[in-house]
Amino acid sequence: MAKGWAVRVHVDASLASGAAVALSAGQAHHLRTVLRLGDGAAVAAFNTADGEWLCRLAGRRLAVERQLRAPAPGSDLWLLFAPVKRVRVDWLVEKATELGVSALLPVITRHTQAERINLDRLRAHAVAAAEQSERLSVPELREPQALTAVLGAWQLERRLYVCDETGEGAPAAAAVRPGPAAWLVGPEGGFAETELDALGKLPFVSRVGLGPLVLRADTAAVASLAVYQAIAGDWRPA
Prior knowledge:
With 238 residues, the chain is of the alpha/beta class. It is 30% helix and 26% strand.
């Protein structure tokens, strides 16, 4: 639940005192028609580069007044996920955004069933979740790629934690450590045995177990992100 400004909008335009930022048709409709805000109403606009700024509604524009929060680095945390059914993937993107991921990477695995996803729709869900959760950025949403292609271009300094449903992965509390990280969650049918074997041989991969129960793919994704944030990420005491 939001603890600060009740009305927040993400904008791509630069934010600076005295600037005027044009609203999209959807944003103008939401502020004017749905929320019934009039000229002069306070709106907080934000983006990654400029932070969050107090603005006043002026027609279909925002008049930028002063900075509320300076830009701040978020978690360097990626989520790689095999696309699942539409309702579940929408929920997954929303919750991953709320949990602070910086990048969302759909990957195609051997057992992936839903290979076609609507990136525009998913980005809209990510933007809405960022607005609601008071974060200052929207996660990058990348085009779907084959898992083998993603791994072939991997940078070794980023640890990849693989959610291992076989029970052979290390406990999360023992495996997770601070640093650039990514989590990989397989499809509804699980990883193929050959995929898990190949992943286990890569020097940047840690196979991690998420307990004795069988989790849905989207549940496993949210659980893994929460575990990381608690042990090595944003949830640690300052």
